[in-house]
């Protein structure tokens, strides 16, 4: 059997390695148009910034390695021009010599990856404008920085890569300005979590322009739609990627609704004996079961392994993704998994949302606050998604949530997890458990939550309500929500006679715990409709300054 793979980065080489483990007799050939293979794309921002000193650390394997270890032939600098699916023939160009070759296959795996999206910006082809998608891009950027020593940079787009490069350029002493056409940074987050990232960027000296579109680049000036100008010796366009599907489309291979190659759980396309994996292929979402496109190195490796197994007779099958992501920016860790609130609402879920602000471990052990946004389905209690910003322990918590959501856990189940505890690592009730408790209390125990945005809308509506600040007087006097009255938790029982038990009542404290205690008192004394502000005064002020 002859297995031909197109593409030799994460998915293609994973497919080849797994195929060889399963079948020692198969002929396995990979064609790759680039000169670099099996590289760590996620490490590129850190080489640019100097944290990774040697580029070879990101490209540890070459064609000789795969030939020696796996008996796989990798031909770099070879571009597949066409696929004759009926006759199982490929046409290939040797990019060094221009020679046109033909090859045949029994099984074909397409792992052509993705390319950077270039928005319609005049001047985007200039010498000081870059994208960062592969090792060649990385080397060009590094050479430009070394040769020209730019002082000012603009990054267009605030996704993971854009922010990671931002941090690394700042570490080199370059002034960086971020430009984002959406009204918030980090588009994968909900706006009430993205605000933490934006504030952190500003605190670290990064000007952030949201709701701004770049129309043209002229020399060392980036010009916005409203004619504002930003000085920039260096520009990075980081506005997302698109799957490389032209070759597949010409061969009659069908694309999915995301415009990536449509595959089933076995990585099979609509054409027999042709498979696709990695960033060129569509995935499906664990929660909704619907097609999504979330290109990630981890998913590419996984789908490549599945393709390599299936083409050699194995029975591995893809189980979907949650769109999990994590990155670090100036010491802050940002992580997300599952559906965002806006995505869940778009899918028709009636969602319950909480903002849980807790330290990752006791403060006496140096614990630092993290903000966990939990999203659950009110109808079933199932966890739908989680977003976290914090400084320590974020990676640990997001992976627990990933596991829980993958196995369809309900919010109430999180409290019952037997998580590891000792003061150097966690609080006695871990923030994961607290998140489940808060959501379950809201959905099944009558301890309703109200978000900052919904409270702001209520205040602006002119409808009747009573808002209780349950903190001590000194905290209230320092700052409080404008329409609130101060009834400290310890004195609340004595003040009940002055409140209307039939009015909509909202309680709050700094982060939510004492507000919940006040809410319990009111409910237990017959108050009909009582809400606690999700995340308390801190979350309200962060969102509604």
Automatic annotation (TrEMBL):
InterPro entries: FAD-bd_OxRdtase, FAD/NAD-bd_sf, FAD/NAD-binding_dom, FAD/NAD-linked_Rdtase_dimer_sf, Pyr_nucl-diS_OxRdtase_dimer, Rhodanese-like_dom, Rhodanese-like_dom_sf. The keyword Acyltransferase does not apply. It comes from the Bacteria. Its cofactor is FAD. Residues 461-544 form the Rhodanese domain. This is NADPH-dependent 2,4-dienoyl-CoA reductase, sulfur reductase. Belongs to the class-III pyridine nucleotide-disulfide oxidoreductase family. Keywords: FAD, Flavoprotein, Oxidoreductase, Redox-active center. Gene3D superfamilies: FAD/NAD(P)-binding domain, Rhodanese-like domain. It comes from Anaerobium acetethylicum. GO terms for molecular function: oxidoreductase activity. PANTHER family: NAD(P)H SULFUR OXIDOREDUCTASE (COA-DEPENDENT) (PTHR43429:SF1), PYRIDINE NUCLEOTIDE-DISULFIDE OXIDOREDUCTASE DOMAIN-CONTAINING (PTHR43429). Pfam families: Pyr_redox_2 (PF07992), Pyr_redox_dim (PF02852), Rhodanese (PF00581).
